């Protein structure tokens, strides 16, 4: 299991150990094929940045706490021996 963290705004360190535990519980709950590598991307951005992303991708012009982008059904990843869950964008 792999979590890629992009901390764009110098927020305090994210607790990677807890994030891996959450990802492991998620994989177990949804009975994901753990023979494949499971990947989750996490970006920590400013309130202004998340507002821009919310407007661009959801046509909602306001700040939100989190955005999620599901990659599981993306054709590119379907052919690879990985499960790329997608990306979480967290406002800090």
Automatic annotation (TrEMBL):
Keywords tagged on the record: Endonuclease, Hydrolase, Metal-binding, Nuclease, Ribosome biogenesis, rRNA processing, Zinc
Pfam families assigned: YbeY (PF02130)
Cofactor(s) needed for function: Zn(2+)
GO biological process, one term: rRNA processing
Taxonomic superkingdom: Bacteria
GO molecular function: endonuclease activity; metal ion binding; metalloendopeptidase activity
Similarity comment text for this entry: Belongs to the endoribonuclease YbeY family.
Protein name, UniProt field: Metal-dependent hydrolase
């Amino acid at each position: 299991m792999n979590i890629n963290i992009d901390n764009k705004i110098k927020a305090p360190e994210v607790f990677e150990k807890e994030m891996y535990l959450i990802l492991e519980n998620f994989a177990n709950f949804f009975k994901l094929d753990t023979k494949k590598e499971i990947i989750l991307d996490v970006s920590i951005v400013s309130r202004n940045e998340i507002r821009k992303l919310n407007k661009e991708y959801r046509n909602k012009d306001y700040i939100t706490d989190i955005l999620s982008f599901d990659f599981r059904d993306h054709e590119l990843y379907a052919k690879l021996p990985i499960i790329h869950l997608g990306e979480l964008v967290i406002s800090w």
